[in-house]
């Protein structure tokens, strides 16, 4: 059986840190907490779980803090979490099994990262990240903001899910943007990844014109990861939608097809575009295509699960109903109902269509 070090960086996490550590305390062999300047009860709470609490002077660099935390690990593998992450019961069992059975030749284990759920607890967005890495490989974090862990070698894609459960949307909504602005002011040259994430921050702060500028700079480098390229197209479409420029938004939706085969998220975007224009046949074409695509099992990009499951079927119900094909409308509504059996809109459609049929 392998041994595991949990390494975390924290600051003012008194509301969530106990929940996080409670969910994993029996799965790891040591807990290392690097504190970057807490002024609340974070350290006091953490001390109930470990005495390995190490201070780190914050230098506007998340990778520096994470690499510092990794340096203090002593076990075979390093597992990392954020304070508002948890392992749910099923995933704790899977993690325990993994720990008992993992081939020591594995260099990194990826896990699903559940970013958001609906009111029924169903995962709505997720992606995959390297979570458990062999300590002796000395894998390093890169990037001052939106850091990533660079790994090589034998990688195992597990079915374990780390669940993100924030109590608030942002700890400091201005922090990341401030870091990027300081770097620009110093004259730093941004790598493609920096351009992408800086544009994300600008979009989050509703600076749409500047966000467009940096997303386009990112795409112009032609050096971006394919998932970031596709994401940038969607975010550019969002920016232009906010600015009322639907034609430019449409161009970037289509541009996403240059980087890979169509994704359900973009097919649903096109379906929505034509549905709003009451072009129901065109809308149905794109929604139907979304239903025919195979949902990625091990996607590293952000997945909007609704677009790969119930949403296009619900919208096809609307399209076919408008086109007078109530049999097809009912059939697609029933498929949507299998995914969301208690959805009021789907149940309303069912009653309405049954009254016609």
TrEMBL record:
It comes from Laceyella putida. Its EC number is 2.4.-.-. The keyword Glycosyltransferase applies. Residues 5-130 form the Glycosyltransferase 2-like domain. One of its GO terms (molecular function) is glycosyltransferase activity. Gene3D superfamilies: Spore Coat Polysaccharide Biosynthesis Protein SpsA, Chain A (3.90.550.10), Tetratricopeptide repeat domain (1.25.40.10). This is Glycosyltransferase. PANTHER family: GLYCOSYLTRANSFERASE, POLY-BETA-1,6-N-ACETYL-D-GLUCOSAMINE SYNTHASE. The keyword Glycosyltransferase applies. Pfam families: Glycos_transf_2. It is an enzyme of class 2 (transferase). InterPro entries: Glyco_trans_2-like, Nucleotide-diphossugar_trans, TPR-like_helical_dom_sf. Keywords: Glycosyltransferase, Transferase. It comes from the Bacteria. Signal peptide: none annotated.
């Amino acid at each position: 059986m392998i041994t595991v070090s949990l390494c975390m960086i924290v600051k003012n996490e008194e509301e969530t840190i106990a929940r996080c550590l409670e969910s994993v305390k029996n799965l790891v062999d040591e807990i290392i907490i690097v504190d970057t300047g807490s002024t609340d009860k974070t350290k006091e709470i953490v001390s109930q779980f470990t005495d390995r609490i190490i201070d780190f002077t914050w230098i506007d660099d998340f990778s520096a803090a994470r690499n510092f935390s990794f340096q203090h690990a002593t076990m075979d593998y390093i597992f990392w979490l954020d304070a508002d992450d948890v392992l749910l019961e099923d995933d704790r069992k899977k993690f325990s099994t993994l720990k008992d059975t993992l081939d020591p030749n594995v260099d990194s284990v990826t896990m699903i990262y559940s970013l958001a759920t609906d009111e029924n607890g169903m995962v709505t967005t997720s992606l995959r990240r390297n979570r458990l890495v062999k300590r002796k490989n000395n894998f390093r974090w890169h990037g001052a903001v939106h850091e990533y862990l660079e790994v090589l070698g034998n990688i195992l894609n597990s079915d374990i899910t780390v669940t993100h459960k924030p109590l608030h949307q942002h700890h400091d909504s201005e922090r990341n943007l401030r870091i990027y602005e300081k770097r620009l002011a110093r004259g730093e040259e941004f790598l493609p990844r920096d351009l992408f994430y800086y544009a994300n921050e600008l979009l989050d702060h509703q600076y749409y014109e500047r966000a467009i500028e940096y997303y386009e700079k990112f795409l112009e480098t032609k050096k971006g990861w394919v998932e970031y390229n596709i994401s940038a197209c969607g975010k550019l479409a969002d920016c232009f939608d906010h600015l009322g420029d639907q034609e430019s938004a449409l161009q970037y939706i289509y541009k996403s097809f240059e980087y890979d085969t169509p994704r359900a998220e973009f097919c649903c975007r096109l379906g929505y575009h034509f549905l709003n224009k009451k072009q129901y046949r065109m809308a149905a074409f794109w929604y139907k295509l979304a239903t025919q695509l195979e949902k990625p099992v091990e996607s590293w990009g952000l997945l909007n699960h609704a677009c790969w499951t119930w949403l296009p079927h619900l919208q096809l119900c609307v399209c076919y109903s408008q086109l007078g094909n109530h049999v097809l409308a009912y059939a697609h509504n029933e498929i949507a109902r299998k995914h969301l059996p208690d959805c009021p809109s789907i149940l309303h459609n069912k009653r309405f269509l049954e009254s016609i049929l």
